[in-house]
């Protein structure tokens, strides 16, 4: 299976003002780490790449951001 690396231009439709938002940093961190490892990544690794720290509070922040803004909510 061939996998292409994600570059910044893959996200060209995101607004310029959003480039420093945590959500976008998390997206880039996940794409970079997944491309490097070619497999699953840990929450601590995502936090370290996106925020620069991987302590428990930063991991919680990443987890909450993923839950609230990146994962689709199921209809009840």
Short description:
This protein has 76 residues and is mainly α.
Please characterize this protein's 3D structure.
- The structure is a single chain.
- The protein is mainly alpha-helical and 76 residues long.
- The protein has one domain.
- The chain is 53% helix and 0% strand.
- The chain contains three helices and no strands.
- It is globular and about 25 Å long.
Report the order of strands and helices: HHH
Q: Tell me roughly what share of residues is in helical segments.
A: 40-55%
Tell me the radius of gyration.
13 Å
Number of helices: 3
Q: Note the main sheet.
A: none
Task: Quickly count the domains.
Answer: 1
Strand content bin: under 5%
Q: What separation lies between the terminal Cα atoms?
A: 37 Å
Unreliably modeled segments: none
Mean pLDDT: 76
Structural class computed from helices and strand pairing: mainly alpha
The total of beta strands comes to 0
Basic shape: globular
Oligomer: single chain
Question: Which structural traits does this protein have?
Answer:
single chain, 76 residues
Note the topology.
Blueprint: H1 22-37, H2 43-51, H3 56-70
Helix pairs in contact: 1-2, 2-3
């Amino acid at each position: 299976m061939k996998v292409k690396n994600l570059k910044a231009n893959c996200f060209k439709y995101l607004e310029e003002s959003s480039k420093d938002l945590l959500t976008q940093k998390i997206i880039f961190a996940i794409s970079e780490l997944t491309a490097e490892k070619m497999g699953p990544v840990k929450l601590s690794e995502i936090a370290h790449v996106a925020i620069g720290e991987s302590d428990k509070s930063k991991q919680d922040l990443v987890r909450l951001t993923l839950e609230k803004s990146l994962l689709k909510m199921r209809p009840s």
